[in-house]
Amino acid sequence: MKDGDHLEITADDLIALVHRYNPKTNEPLIRAAYDYGRDMHADQRRHSGELYFNHPVAVAAILTEQQLDDATIITALLHDTIEDTKASYAEVARLFGDEIAGLVDGVTKLTNLQLNSTETKQAENFRKLFMAMSKDLRVILVKLSDRLHNMRTIRAMRPEKQAQKARETMDIFAPLAGRMGMQWMREELEDLAFRVLNPDGRASIIRRFINLQKETGDVIQRITGDMRSELDKAGIDAKVFGRAKKPYSIWRKMQEKDQAFSRLSDIYGFRIITDNEEDCYRTLGVIHQRWRAVPGRFKDYISQPKSNGYRSIHTTVSGRDGKRVEVQIRTVQMHDVAETGVAAHWSYRDGVRSKNPFAVDPAKWITTLTEQFDAEDDHQDFLEAVKLEMYSDQVFCFTPKGEVVKLPRGATPIDFAFAIHTRIGMACVGAKVDHMRVPLWTRLKNGQSVDIITAEGQSPQGTWLDIAVTGKARAAIRRSLREEDKARFVKLGRELARSAFENVGRKATDKALSTAAKAMRLGGRNDLLARLGSAEITGRAVVQAVYPELLPQEGVQVDAKRAVIGLSPGQSFERAPCCQPLPGERIVGVTFKGRGVVVHAIDCDRMSAYEDQPERWLDLHWHDGSHPAVYGATLDVTLNNSAGAMGRICTLIGEAQANISDLQFVDRKPDFYRLLIYLELRDVAHLHSLMLTLEAESDVAAIARYRNMSQSSAETPA
C-alpha cells in the first residue's frame, strides 16, 4: 500500500455499523475477513485510482443498512477474492467456513455471467440468476449491493462501459430488486442508470421540479403538516413522510401517458407509518374524509399481501387544486419488510434474528417464482413472463379448496388454469365460476371461486391467445401451437410472406425478413415465419415493419402552422435547426424577443445554454393526428458503390412518401460512399419507418439520424 492511501471505511467503522443492530455479532470473524480481503486485494486499484478494497467494504456497509447477518457481511468483504486474487475456494472455506465459501463462490459465478442487454442474453441470464438464487438468496443480495455501489461510482469508467453497465442495471438488476420487494434499491438503481443513459432528460426533470417549487412552495411540507394535523384530531399516533418521486419514475410516467411534465399530477408520494393494523384502516378513513379519493387507484395489500411479503394500503387522493398525491399506509413491521423485501428473512434486531411476522421464507418465495419459468423453452416467452410488473392491478380468486390465486385484472379462466399448473392449463376444456358454467373468455372478478374442467387429449387452441392475458399462459399456448407442427408453420409462413410482399411490389428476401424479425423483436427469420404461419402475426404486420409507407395511411392531417400545443395566442414558433425536432418527439420551447418560440427536442445538447434562464422555457407538445411531410430531418447513409444503388435508395424514399430536399456527399471511396440526405417527413414514426426500410436494402451498409449541434440561428435574448 502506498503512502497516503487509506481505506474509507475501517474495520472498526464496519463493526460499529453491524453493532447497531446486532450487538452479538462475531466481531473477530468480521475483522479477520476484513484483514484477509485487504491483504488479498493489496495494491489493486479501481478505475478512479483509489484502492480496490474500498469497493467490497462499501458493499458490506450497504448490506448493514439492511441489517443482514454476519455471513452476508463477510461474503461482501470477500466477494471478489476468489475471482480477482490468489485466494482459493478451499482457503476461504478453511478460514471462514463452508457457508461463507459457498456464498462467495455463488457471487463469483454471477459475476462471470457476462450479462448482456440483448433479448436472448437477458433471458439466459435471468435463468442463471434464478438458479443461483434458488441455492441461497443472499448471493443476489450481495450482487445487488455490489451493482449499487458500482453504479454510484460509475463516473470513473469509460463512457461506453458506463452505457453497458447502465443498460444491464435498467434491464436486469433494477427489475430484480423490485421483484424482491426492495423498492428503494430498484428506484436508486433506475435513477443512477437514467443519469448515464439520458442525462439531459434527467436534468430537465430536475429543472422542472425546481421551477415547480418556486411557483408552488414546499408542497411536501404543507401536505405532510395537513396529514399530521388530521391524524392528531382523530387520535391516531403515526409518522408521516413525504417525498418527490425519482426523476426516472416521472420520466417513465411522462412516456407512458404521453403527457408533458406540467400535466402530470401524482409526482409526490406520502407514507404513513402506524403502530398497528387497525390504525392503518382508521388512517385510510381520515385521509379519504379530508381529501377526495381518485377512483380505481385504491389497493389493499394488507388483506391480500404480495408474494414477497409486501403489505401496505395504497390510495391516491386529490385536493382542491386538482393535484394528486399517492399515499401508502402501513405498520412499522410492514414497513421493515417493504424496505428490505425478501431480505427481511435474514435481518437482525438487538442481536437476534428479527421475527417479523410478515417476512417471507425465501426458499418458498424462490420456489413459487422459478416454477413459473421451469418449462419455458422459448427465450422471448421466458423474458415476457419474468418481466411481470410488480404493481400491476390484481384480482384474487379461489380454487374449490379455498386456495388464493393472484391474477392481473382482466384475467380469464384460462389464465387461472395455467396459474395453478401448466398441465392443468394444457388440458383445460371448460370452467365453472361460483358453481356456474361460463365461457373461457369470461373476465374474472375479485373473490370468485373458479373450478377448471379438464380432459385427456386436450391441447391449447389458437383462439386462446385472444383470451389469455398472463405471460405464463400465453407463452405456454404459443409454445404448444408452434411445436405441433413448426415445420408446417414455417413453410406456410414463407408463402404468406411472399404473397404479402408481392402485394406491395417487393420481394420477401431473407434480409427483408430478418429486418422485419429484428423490428418486431422476434428470435430470427424462422421464428417470424413460424409465427406468421400460426396466425400469431399477420402478413400486413410483417410488411408494415419493413415498408410501412407502402400501406394506406389514415388520420386527420394537422396544420403545420398550428402543429404545436402550449403556445400563447398569436405566438409563432420555428423548429431548431440543430436538433430538427419532429412531431412525436418530446419537445421544449425557448422564447426569443421578436422571433417567438424556437422548438428543441428535449434531449438537445444546446438546451444547456438556457439552464440558467428557466423563465424562457415553455412546456410544449405536438398535436395528435397526421402531419404533412414538411418537417426537415437528415440521414447519414453509407452506401455500397454499386451500379444503380443511389437510384434504388431514392426510389425507396419516394415510395415512402418522403421528399429529398438536398444531398451532400461526405466521403467517397472505391467500395462505398457516405452522404447526408436532407428529407422532408411527417413525424418521428415516418423517420424510423423510412430508416428501417432503407436498412433492409442490401446496398445500405450503415444508416443513422444526423443532428448538427454546431448549427444554430442568431439568438436574441427574450
Outline the secondary-structure elements:
Blueprint: H1 11-19, H2 27-41, H3 54-64, H4 70-78, H5 81-84, H6 89-96, H7 98-111, H8 119-135, H9 138-152, H10 159-179, H11 183-197, H12 199-216, H13 219-233, E1 238-244, H14 247-257, E2 268-274, H15 277-290, E3 292-293, E4 299-300, E5 313-318, E6 324-331, H16 332-340, E7 348-349, E8 352-353, H17 362-371, H18 379-386, E9 394-398, E10 404-408, H19 413-420, H20 422-426, E11 428-433, E12 436-438, E13 450-454, H21 471-484, H22 486-502, H23 510-519, H24 525-533, H25 539-546, E14 564-565, E15 573-575, E16 587-592, E17 596-601, E18 617-622, E19 631-640, H26 645-655, E20 659-668, E21 672-681, H27 684-695, E22 700-706
Parallel strand pairs: 2-6, 15-17
Antiparallel strand pairs: 1-2, 3-5, 4-5, 5-6, 7-8, 9-10, 11-12, 11-13, 14-18, 16-17, 16-18, 19-21, 19-22, 20-21
Helix pairs in contact: 2-4, 3-4, 3-9, 4-7, 4-9, 6-7, 7-9, 8-17, 8-18, 9-11, 10-11, 11-12, 12-14, 18-21, 19-21, 22-24, 22-25, 23-24, 23-25
List keywords for this structure.
six-stranded mixed β-sheet, disordered C terminus, about 15% strand, about 725 residues, alpha+beta, 22 strands, five-stranded mixed β-sheet
Summarize the structure.
The protein has 718 residues and is α+β, with helices and mostly antiparallel strands. The protein contains 27 helices and 22 strands.
- The whole-number mean of residue pLDDT values reads 81
Number of helices: 27
N-to-C span: 57 Å
Structural class assignment: alpha+beta
